[in-house]
Amino acid sequence: MVAELQTGQVDPKDIKLPMVEIFETVEGEGTKAGFPTTFVRLFHCNLRCTWCDTPYSYAPAKPSFMATISEIITEVQKYPHKHICLTGGEPLLHGQKSIALIQALAEISYIEDIHIETNGAIDLKPFQELRNQDERVGRKMRFILDYKLPSSGETDKMILENFKYLHDRDEIKFVIGTDEDFQVAREVLKKWYQRGVPLFSPVWETMSPKQLVEKILEYQLTEVKLSLQLHKVIWDPDQRGV
Q1: Which of 33, 114, 176, 199 could form a disulfide with 227, with the two C-beta atoms 3.0–4.6 Å apart?
Q2: Is 104 in a helix, a strand, or coil?
Q3: Across the beta sheet with 36-42, what order do the strands follow?
Q4: CATH of the domain at 226
């Protein structure tokens, strides 16, 4: 399929992707927290984080449905929101298919912001090249790079080269569950951070928001933004489609 896409033998709008859900809500975290947002959640992930809150987005679970890019766009256009969250699973795991979907979303005239939640274990170079080459995508697309810390069990999968592809409007999310996580996040920022907004988000079961704020202030991390998951405050933490 990738070869066919590259040679133009397949209409990009006919490409099928495994899906979990498409729904409207308010963005729950990050710099756009609180804004009405359309969520497009793809199926499949290449990581298995210990604290993952969407295990229904990867095996052994199954995709909820298969949809062509045309069908995804039709569903997205049922909602008026200018913000799109492309998430998963890992939404960039599908390579050229993911690129085709991003381009199609960017063609929707009223969409201003397409933020892509990516897990740090996918090479961002092809997607950075996309936003350099496609002016419309470049205006709308940004990364939320979720750097996995020790308590996730997936730190060794992180691609450190990805930091050089980030822009000022991108975000780097650190989900912090332990003191070790916090110290590793500090070291990563010190050694690799170039651009983007660093977000520190607590694993509430093991690191309370109060504890995390106290640590941020203690170490005078003036560039870091605390990020709480609003959707878990508003709704039951296990509720889907919110």
Answers
A1: 199
A2: helix
A3: 65-68, 16-26, 36-42, 83-87, 113-118, 141-147, 171-176, 197-202, 225-226
A4: 3.20.20.70
